[in-house]
Amino acid sequence: MVGKHDARSMGEGEGPTSRRRALWLGPLAALAIVATTLGALDANRGASSPTSTTSTPSTTSVPPATTTTVAPTVSIAAVGDTELGNSPQLPSDPRAYLEPITHALAAPIVFGNLEGTITNSTHSKCVPNGTSCYTFRVPVSYAAIYRSAGFTVMNSANNHAYDFGQQGVIDTSKALQSVGIVQAGLPGQIGVVSEGGLKVAFVDFAPYYNTNNMLDFPAAARLIARAHQLANVVVVYMHAGAEGASADHVTRRSESFYGENRGNPYAFAHAVINDGADLVIASGPHVLRGMEWFKGHLIDYSLGDFANYYDFSAAGVLDLSAILHVRLDATGGFVSGSFTSVRLSTSGQPSVDPTNASSGFVNQLSRADFGANAALISVNGAILPAG
Question: Are 304 and 288 contacting, i.e. CB atoms less than 8 angstroms apart?
Fold first, then answer.
Protein backbone atom coordinates (compact mmCIF):
# COMPACT_ATOMS: atom_id res chain seq x y z
CA MET A 1 0.00 0.00 0.00
CA VAL A 2 1.28 3.47 -0.75
CA GLY A 3 -0.28 5.51 2.02
CA LYS A 4 0.52 7.43 2.07
CA HIS A 5 23.04 20.33 21.49
CA ASP A 6 20.70 23.65 22.83
CA ALA A 7 17.52 22.82 21.04
CA ARG A 8 14.21 24.67 20.60
CA SER A 9 11.32 25.12 18.17
CA MET A 10 10.80 28.70 17.02
CA GLY A 11 7.71 30.46 15.75
CA GLU A 12 8.19 32.77 12.80
CA GLY A 13 7.61 35.96 14.73
CA GLU A 14 10.30 35.38 17.38
CA GLY A 15 13.90 36.41 17.93
CA PRO A 16 15.63 39.75 17.23
CA THR A 17 19.04 38.59 16.00
CA SER A 18 20.48 39.67 12.63
CA ARG A 19 22.19 37.24 10.21
CA ARG A 20 25.10 37.21 7.79
CA ARG A 21 22.88 38.04 4.83
CA ALA A 22 21.01 41.35 4.56
CA LEU A 23 17.48 40.13 3.85
CA TRP A 24 14.33 42.22 4.10
CA LEU A 25 11.74 40.65 6.34
CA GLY A 26 8.15 41.72 5.77
CA PRO A 27 5.26 41.00 8.16
CA LEU A 28 4.24 37.36 8.45
CA ALA A 29 0.71 36.38 9.26
CA ALA A 30 1.33 32.69 9.99
CA LEU A 31 0.66 31.71 13.58
CA ALA A 32 3.58 29.99 15.32
CA ILE A 33 2.54 26.77 17.04
CA VAL A 34 4.52 25.24 19.88
CA ALA A 35 7.15 27.94 19.66
CA THR A 36 9.54 29.22 22.31
CA THR A 37 11.66 32.34 22.30
CA LEU A 38 15.32 32.16 21.38
CA GLY A 39 17.72 34.75 22.67
CA ALA A 40 20.20 36.53 20.49
CA LEU A 41 22.75 34.39 18.72
CA ASP A 42 26.28 34.22 20.03
CA ALA A 43 28.17 37.32 19.00
CA ASN A 44 31.11 35.35 17.75
CA ARG A 45 29.91 33.18 14.83
CA GLY A 46 32.74 33.27 12.37
CA ALA A 47 35.87 31.19 12.31
CA SER A 48 39.09 32.92 13.32
CA SER A 49 42.72 31.98 13.14
CA PRO A 50 44.58 33.88 15.86
CA THR A 51 48.31 33.47 16.13
CA SER A 52 50.68 34.09 19.02
CA THR A 53 54.42 34.66 18.92
CA THR A 54 57.09 34.30 21.58
CA SER A 55 59.89 36.90 21.90
CA THR A 56 63.44 35.57 22.28
CA PRO A 57 66.84 37.13 22.94
CA SER A 58 68.57 38.52 19.88
CA THR A 59 71.26 35.84 20.10
CA THR A 60 68.70 33.02 19.61
CA SER A 61 66.42 32.46 16.65
CA VAL A 62 63.20 30.61 17.51
CA PRO A 63 60.35 30.10 15.01
CA PRO A 64 57.17 31.79 16.17
CA ALA A 65 54.65 29.51 17.86
CA THR A 66 51.26 29.53 16.18
CA THR A 67 47.85 28.37 17.28
CA THR A 68 45.31 27.52 14.59
CA THR A 69 41.60 27.61 15.31
CA VAL A 70 39.67 24.99 13.34
CA ALA A 71 36.79 26.54 11.42
CA PRO A 72 33.48 25.50 13.00
CA THR A 73 31.16 23.18 11.10
CA VAL A 74 27.84 21.43 11.66
CA SER A 75 27.18 17.76 10.89
CA ILE A 76 23.67 16.66 9.99
CA ALA A 77 22.19 13.23 9.33
CA ALA A 78 18.83 13.15 7.54
CA VAL A 79 16.35 10.42 6.68
CA GLY A 80 12.93 10.32 5.06
CA ASP A 81 9.50 9.15 6.19
CA THR A 82 9.65 7.57 9.62
CA GLU A 83 6.98 5.91 11.72
CA LEU A 84 7.06 2.91 14.00
CA GLY A 85 3.65 1.44 13.37
CA ASN A 86 0.04 2.41 13.66
CA SER A 87 -1.80 1.70 16.91
CA PRO A 88 -2.72 -1.01 17.66
CA GLN A 89 -0.38 -2.57 15.07
CA LEU A 90 2.97 -1.93 16.73
CA PRO A 91 6.33 -3.71 16.96
CA SER A 92 6.69 -5.89 20.04
CA ASP A 93 9.97 -4.14 20.88
CA PRO A 94 10.06 -0.71 19.20
CA ARG A 95 13.48 0.13 20.58
CA ALA A 96 14.99 -3.01 19.03
CA TYR A 97 13.25 -2.19 15.73
CA LEU A 98 15.65 0.70 15.06
CA GLU A 99 18.76 -0.79 16.67
CA PRO A 100 20.22 -2.20 13.42
CA ILE A 101 20.51 1.30 11.98
CA THR A 102 21.38 3.60 14.90
CA HIS A 103 25.15 3.33 14.38
CA ALA A 104 24.80 4.56 10.79
CA LEU A 105 22.39 7.28 11.84
CA ALA A 106 24.67 8.77 14.49
CA ALA A 107 25.42 12.50 14.14
CA PRO A 108 25.26 15.60 16.35
CA ILE A 109 22.05 16.63 14.53
CA VAL A 110 19.69 13.92 13.27
CA PHE A 111 16.60 14.85 11.24
CA GLY A 112 13.64 12.72 10.21
CA ASN A 113 10.16 13.21 8.83
CA LEU A 114 7.58 12.07 11.39
CA GLU A 115 5.00 10.46 9.13
CA GLY A 116 2.03 10.57 11.46
CA THR A 117 1.31 11.49 15.06
CA ILE A 118 2.41 10.63 18.56
CA THR A 119 -0.90 10.53 20.41
CA ASN A 120 -3.25 8.30 22.34
CA SER A 121 -6.26 10.03 20.78
CA THR A 122 -8.61 7.83 18.76
CA HIS A 123 -10.56 10.57 16.95
CA SER A 124 -9.14 10.31 13.43
CA LYS A 125 -9.78 12.33 10.27
CA CYS A 126 -11.05 9.22 8.43
CA VAL A 127 -14.61 8.08 8.04
CA PRO A 128 -15.13 4.74 9.84
CA ASN A 129 -14.59 1.75 7.53
CA GLY A 130 -13.26 3.98 4.74
CA THR A 131 -10.90 2.42 2.20
CA SER A 132 -9.00 5.42 0.80
CA CYS A 133 -8.03 7.30 3.94
CA TYR A 134 -4.96 6.48 5.99
CA THR A 135 -4.04 7.63 9.48
CA PHE A 136 -0.93 6.90 11.53
CA ARG A 137 -0.33 7.15 15.24
CA VAL A 138 1.95 5.66 17.83
CA PRO A 139 1.66 5.95 21.63
CA VAL A 140 3.04 9.00 23.40
CA SER A 141 5.71 6.76 24.96
CA TYR A 142 7.26 6.28 21.50
CA ALA A 143 8.75 9.79 21.55
CA ALA A 144 11.48 8.40 23.80
CA ILE A 145 12.13 5.64 21.23
CA TYR A 146 12.82 8.22 18.54
CA ARG A 147 15.12 10.12 20.87
CA SER A 148 17.04 7.00 21.92
CA ALA A 149 17.62 6.23 18.22
CA GLY A 150 19.36 9.60 17.94
CA PHE A 151 16.72 11.91 16.46
CA THR A 152 17.06 15.55 17.52
CA VAL A 153 14.76 17.21 14.95
CA MET A 154 11.50 15.86 13.52
CA ASN A 155 9.27 17.30 10.84
CA SER A 156 5.51 17.73 11.03
CA ALA A 157 4.98 19.42 7.65
CA ASN A 158 3.27 16.52 5.91
CA ASN A 159 -0.14 15.11 5.03
CA HIS A 160 -0.37 13.02 8.21
CA ALA A 161 0.37 15.63 10.89
CA TYR A 162 -3.37 16.17 11.46
CA ASP A 163 -4.45 12.54 11.22
CA PHE A 164 -5.98 12.83 14.70
CA GLY A 165 -7.04 16.43 14.56
CA GLN A 166 -5.81 19.30 16.66
CA GLN A 167 -5.54 17.05 19.71
CA GLY A 168 -3.14 14.82 17.83
CA VAL A 169 -1.05 17.84 16.88
CA ILE A 170 -0.94 19.07 20.47
CA ASP A 171 -0.06 15.62 21.81
CA THR A 172 2.69 15.16 19.22
CA SER A 173 4.28 18.51 19.99
CA LYS A 174 4.20 17.86 23.74
CA ALA A 175 5.63 14.38 23.34
CA LEU A 176 8.55 15.56 21.20
CA GLN A 177 9.29 18.46 23.50
CA SER A 178 9.24 16.22 26.56
CA VAL A 179 12.17 14.17 25.26
CA GLY A 180 14.17 17.06 23.84
CA ILE A 181 13.33 16.61 20.14
CA VAL A 182 12.84 19.86 18.23
CA GLN A 183 9.76 20.05 16.01
CA ALA A 184 9.48 21.99 12.76
CA GLY A 185 6.93 22.49 10.01
CA LEU A 186 3.71 23.60 11.67
CA PRO A 187 2.48 27.04 10.52
CA GLY A 188 5.18 29.63 11.22
CA GLN A 189 7.30 27.11 13.09
CA ILE A 190 11.08 27.00 12.67
CA GLY A 191 13.14 24.41 14.53
CA VAL A 192 16.52 25.58 15.83
CA VAL A 193 19.29 23.35 17.18
CA SER A 194 22.95 23.92 17.99
CA GLU A 195 26.22 22.16 17.40
CA GLY A 196 29.15 23.75 19.17
CA GLY A 197 28.90 27.48 18.63
CA LEU A 198 26.72 27.29 15.52
CA LYS A 199 22.95 27.25 15.23
CA VAL A 200 21.02 25.44 12.53
CA ALA A 201 17.45 26.38 11.59
CA PHE A 202 15.13 23.82 10.00
CA VAL A 203 12.36 25.39 7.91
CA ASP A 204 10.02 22.61 6.79
CA PHE A 205 7.29 22.79 4.15
CA ALA A 206 4.46 20.76 2.64
CA PRO A 207 1.72 21.74 0.15
CA TYR A 208 -0.92 22.33 2.85
CA TYR A 209 -2.39 25.38 4.57
CA ASN A 210 -2.04 23.77 8.02
CA THR A 211 1.74 23.49 7.65
CA ASN A 212 4.39 25.86 6.37
CA ASN A 213 2.92 25.96 2.88
CA MET A 214 5.32 25.35 -0.02
CA LEU A 215 2.68 26.52 -2.51
CA ASP A 216 3.08 30.06 -1.12
CA PHE A 217 6.52 31.10 -2.38
CA PRO A 218 6.52 34.63 -0.87
CA ALA A 219 5.62 33.28 2.58
CA ALA A 220 8.37 30.68 2.25
CA ALA A 221 10.87 33.42 1.44
CA ARG A 222 9.83 35.35 4.56
CA LEU A 223 10.25 32.26 6.73
CA ILE A 224 13.74 31.63 5.36
CA ALA A 225 14.66 35.26 5.99
CA ARG A 226 13.42 34.86 9.56
CA ALA A 227 15.44 31.66 9.95
CA HIS A 228 18.59 33.55 9.00
CA GLN A 229 17.93 35.91 11.91
CA LEU A 230 17.87 32.93 14.24
CA ALA A 231 20.71 30.73 13.01
CA ASN A 232 23.98 30.52 11.11
CA VAL A 233 22.82 27.73 8.78
CA VAL A 234 19.38 27.19 7.24
CA VAL A 235 18.12 23.77 6.11
CA VAL A 236 14.87 23.50 4.16
CA TYR A 237 12.84 20.29 4.11
CA MET A 238 9.94 19.70 1.71
CA HIS A 239 7.34 16.94 1.80
CA ALA A 240 6.43 17.09 -1.86
CA GLY A 241 5.69 15.24 -5.05
CA ALA A 242 3.63 12.31 -6.28
CA GLU A 243 3.94 8.88 -4.63
CA GLY A 244 4.93 5.36 -5.58
CA ALA A 245 7.51 3.43 -7.54
CA SER A 246 6.73 5.38 -10.71
CA ALA A 247 7.33 8.72 -8.97
CA ASP A 248 11.12 8.38 -8.79
CA HIS A 249 11.93 11.10 -11.34
CA VAL A 250 11.86 14.86 -10.74
CA THR A 251 9.48 16.07 -13.45
CA ARG A 252 10.12 19.82 -13.05
CA ARG A 253 6.33 20.25 -13.12
CA SER A 254 3.63 20.48 -10.49
CA GLU A 255 2.83 16.97 -9.31
CA SER A 256 -0.47 15.64 -8.04
CA PHE A 257 -1.60 12.59 -6.10
CA TYR A 258 -5.04 11.60 -4.81
CA GLY A 259 -6.29 14.75 -6.51
CA GLU A 260 -4.01 16.97 -4.42
CA ASN A 261 -1.53 19.50 -5.73
CA ARG A 262 1.71 18.15 -4.25
CA GLY A 263 3.79 21.08 -5.50
CA ASN A 264 6.64 21.48 -7.97
CA PRO A 265 9.65 20.19 -6.01
CA TYR A 266 12.17 21.38 -8.60
CA ALA A 267 10.87 24.95 -8.74
CA PHE A 268 10.48 25.16 -4.98
CA ALA A 269 13.95 23.82 -4.21
CA HIS A 270 15.57 26.33 -6.56
CA ALA A 271 13.45 29.16 -5.16
CA VAL A 272 14.38 28.51 -1.53
CA ILE A 273 18.09 28.33 -2.36
CA ASN A 274 17.72 31.67 -4.11
CA ASP A 275 16.02 32.87 -0.92
CA GLY A 276 18.99 31.75 1.19
CA ALA A 277 18.59 28.05 2.07
CA ASP A 278 21.93 26.28 2.48
CA LEU A 279 20.69 22.69 2.05
CA VAL A 280 17.42 21.21 0.76
CA ILE A 281 16.23 17.72 1.74
CA ALA A 282 12.95 16.00 0.98
CA SER A 283 10.73 12.96 1.22
CA GLY A 284 7.10 12.16 0.54
CA PRO A 285 7.12 10.13 -2.70
CA HIS A 286 7.93 6.95 -0.68
CA VAL A 287 10.68 6.31 -3.20
CA LEU A 288 14.22 7.64 -3.59
CA ARG A 289 14.87 10.47 -6.02
CA GLY A 290 18.02 12.02 -7.42
CA MET A 291 20.33 14.69 -6.03
CA GLU A 292 21.36 17.95 -7.67
CA TRP A 293 23.86 20.77 -7.21
CA PHE A 294 22.34 24.24 -7.55
CA LYS A 295 24.52 27.29 -7.04
CA GLY A 296 26.89 25.16 -4.98
CA HIS A 297 24.15 23.88 -2.66
CA LEU A 298 22.97 20.29 -2.40
CA ILE A 299 19.36 19.29 -3.08
CA ASP A 300 18.18 15.78 -2.26
CA TYR A 301 14.73 15.41 -3.84
CA SER A 302 13.62 12.38 -1.82
CA LEU A 303 15.16 10.18 0.84
CA GLY A 304 12.28 7.73 0.51
CA ASP A 305 10.90 5.80 3.48
CA PHE A 306 13.20 5.20 6.42
CA ALA A 307 11.06 3.06 8.73
CA ASN A 308 7.45 1.97 8.44
CA TYR A 309 6.13 -0.95 10.42
CA TYR A 310 3.89 -2.71 7.84
CA ASP A 311 2.37 0.63 6.79
CA PHE A 312 3.85 1.22 3.32
CA SER A 313 4.80 -1.04 0.46
CA ALA A 314 8.38 -2.31 0.41
CA ALA A 315 8.18 -3.96 -3.01
CA GLY A 316 10.73 -3.38 -5.75
CA VAL A 317 12.55 -0.04 -5.51
CA LEU A 318 10.27 0.97 -2.62
CA ASP A 319 12.50 -1.06 -0.28
CA LEU A 320 15.47 1.22 -1.07
CA SER A 321 16.24 3.90 1.49
CA ALA A 322 19.16 6.01 2.62
CA ILE A 323 20.85 8.10 5.28
CA LEU A 324 22.28 11.40 4.09
CA HIS A 325 25.17 12.90 6.08
CA VAL A 326 26.19 16.48 5.31
CA ARG A 327 28.78 18.76 6.91
CA LEU A 328 28.38 22.51 6.38
CA ASP A 329 30.57 25.42 7.40
CA ALA A 330 29.55 28.47 9.43
CA THR A 331 28.19 30.22 6.34
CA GLY A 332 26.23 27.19 5.13
CA GLY A 333 28.81 26.15 2.55
CA PHE A 334 29.10 22.47 1.69
CA VAL A 335 32.18 20.87 3.27
CA SER A 336 31.53 17.17 2.77
CA GLY A 337 28.78 14.60 2.57
CA SER A 338 28.10 10.90 2.44
CA PHE A 339 25.25 8.62 1.39
CA THR A 340 24.54 5.37 3.21
CA SER A 341 22.45 2.82 1.35
CA VAL A 342 19.65 1.32 3.45
CA ARG A 343 17.24 -1.50 2.69
CA LEU A 344 13.82 -2.08 4.27
CA SER A 345 12.61 -5.52 5.26
CA THR A 346 9.08 -6.68 4.50
CA SER A 347 8.11 -5.20 7.87
CA GLY A 348 9.61 -1.85 6.92
CA GLN A 349 12.60 -2.25 9.24
CA PRO A 350 15.74 -0.42 8.04
CA SER A 351 19.27 -1.83 7.95
CA VAL A 352 22.47 -0.85 6.16
CA ASP A 353 22.68 -2.43 2.71
CA PRO A 354 26.23 -3.62 1.88
CA THR A 355 25.31 -3.94 -1.80
CA ASN A 356 24.84 -0.15 -2.03
CA ALA A 357 21.81 -0.60 -4.24
CA SER A 358 20.37 2.76 -3.18
CA SER A 359 23.54 4.62 -4.18
CA GLY A 360 23.48 3.10 -7.64
CA PHE A 361 19.79 3.83 -8.05
CA VAL A 362 20.15 7.46 -6.96
CA ASN A 363 23.16 8.02 -9.23
CA GLN A 364 21.12 6.70 -12.16
CA LEU A 365 18.25 9.06 -11.33
CA SER A 366 20.55 12.03 -10.74
CA ARG A 367 22.29 11.65 -14.10
CA ALA A 368 18.98 11.24 -15.93
CA ASP A 369 17.26 14.20 -14.26
CA PHE A 370 20.08 16.71 -13.81
CA GLY A 371 22.85 15.91 -16.24
CA ALA A 372 25.95 17.98 -15.55
CA ASN A 373 24.38 19.29 -12.33
CA ALA A 374 23.91 15.80 -10.86
CA ALA A 375 25.27 15.28 -7.34
CA LEU A 376 26.90 11.87 -7.59
CA ILE A 377 27.91 9.30 -4.97
CA SER A 378 31.33 7.66 -5.13
CA VAL A 379 31.93 3.94 -4.61
CA ASN A 380 32.81 4.60 -0.97
CA GLY A 381 29.61 6.61 -0.37
CA ALA A 382 31.13 10.10 -0.50
CA ILE A 383 29.10 12.77 -2.25
CA LEU A 384 31.32 14.20 -4.97
CA PRO A 385 31.72 18.00 -4.89
CA ALA A 386 29.99 20.20 -7.43
CA GLY A 387 31.79 20.60 -10.75
Answer: yes
